[in-house]
């Protein structure tokens, strides 16, 4: 079958890398596993060797979805669907996620997973190396609104890098595998969206101070003085505390 560049179809061929990714998830016989973007089934095959209780596959390409059904039969449940909007919560609880994610939509898929954090036990994903660096950054130029948001809900850790030669066809950039695990921190959905918008505003003009981006001259104590800083200097946790002080304690949003 022809590989579709538009869907980020760079398939893994390096058996050592495939094994390392699946090992990182630590699958046991009681695990319900979800694989995002299974494509030709390189990771799927390795996941099945660990005999999980269930394996759900979410693949947008109908040709590969059909191929996976034929190849793995009733050992898997295939969903021909878009992982940027898929309702992962419909699959049950305590799910372990894997995926060599399509690079053009990797952050959108991860943002969708935030909405399904309550059913997630752990996730191990491959993305562009640069994206892994951004997701794990807590300050500086790689840091942005998405890591500031995600790191309140997940512990995110970069595990290892993967060179282009591990794939067919080889991508132009280095890749990296990272893991994410919910911290148990929670927020009601409306608050989460308000927090996300607050962070987007805070990071809207990176060179500007927070007082300018947020339109607030002075922050209340104990945050006094932080308004003179730039968003990239504020940790994910401090951002949440600041958001709570500015909005949540004032009787709503
Ligand atoms: N897991 C396979 C491997 O490692 O060899 C394939 C990985 S490939 C980088 C990404 C896969 O995600 C492709 O099979 C592609 O069709 C699929 N894909 C692309 N966009 C998607 C989306 N929005 N939702 C679900 N799958 C998607």
Outline the structure in words.
By secondary structure, the protein is an alpha/beta fold. The protein folds into two domains: 5-182, Vaccinia Virus protein VP39 (Rossmann fold); 189-250, Helicase, Ruva Protein, domain 3. It is 34% helix and 20% strand. It has helices spanning 15-25, 42-49, 62-72, 106-114, 129-136, 145-153, 189-202, 210-214, 236-246; strands at residues 11-12, 32-36, 54-59, 77-80, 95-100, 120-128, 154-162, 167-168, 175-182. The strands form two sheets. A seven-stranded mixed β-sheet has the order 4-3-2-5-6-9-7. Strands 1-8 form a two-stranded antiparallel ribbon. Strand 3 (54-59), helix 3 and strand 4 form a beta-alpha-beta unit. Helix 6 runs antiparallel to helix 7. It is elongated and about 60 Å long. The model has no long low-confidence stretch (mean pLDDT 96). The structure holds S-adenosylmethionine. Residues 7-12, 36-40, 42-43, 58-61, 64, 82-84, 100, 102, 105 line the site of S-adenosylmethionine. Specifically dimethylates two adjacent adenosines (A1518 and A1519) in the loop of a conserved hairpin near the 3'-end of 16S rRNA in the 30S particle. May play a critical role in biogenesis of 30S subunits. InterPro entries: KsgA/Erm (IPR001737), rRNA_Ade_diMease-like_C (IPR023165), rRNA_Ade_Mease_Trfase_CS (IPR020596), rRNA_Ade_methylase_Trfase_N (IPR020598), rRNA_adenine_dimethylase (IPR011530), SAM-dependent_MTases_sf (IPR029063).
């Amino acid at each position: 079958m022809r590989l579709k560049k538009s869907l980020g179809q760079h398939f893994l061929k390096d058996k050592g890398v495939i094994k390392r990714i699946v090992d990182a998830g630590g699958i046991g016989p009681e695990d319900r596993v979800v694989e995002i973007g299974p494509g030709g089934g390189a990771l799927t095959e390795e996941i099945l060797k660990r005999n999980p209780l269930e394996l759900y596959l979410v693949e947008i390409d109908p040709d590969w979805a059909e191929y996976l059904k034929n190849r793995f039969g009733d050992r898997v449940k295939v969903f021909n669907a878009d992982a940027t909007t898929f309702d992962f919560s419909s699959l049950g609880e305590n799910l372990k996620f894997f995926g060599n994610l399509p690079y053009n939509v990797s952050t959108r898929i991860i943002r969708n997973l935030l909405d399904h954090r309550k059913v997630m036990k752990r996730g191990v994903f491959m993305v562009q190396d640069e994206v892994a660096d951004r997701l794990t950054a807590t300050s500086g130029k790689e840091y942005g609104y998405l890591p500031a948001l995600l790191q309140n809900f997940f512990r995110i850790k970069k595990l290892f890098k993967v060179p282009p030669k591990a794939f067919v066809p080889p991508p132009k950039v280095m890749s990296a595998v990272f893991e994410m695990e919910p911290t148990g921190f929670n927020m009601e959905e409306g608050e989460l969206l308000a927090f996300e918008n607050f962070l987007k505003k805070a990071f809207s003009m990176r060179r500007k101070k927070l007082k300018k981006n947020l339109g607030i001259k002075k922050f209340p104590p104990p945050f006094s003085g932080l308004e003179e800083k730039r968003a990239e200097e504020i940790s994910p946790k401090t951002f949440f505390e600041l958001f709570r002080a500015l909005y949540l304690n004032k009787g709503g949003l």
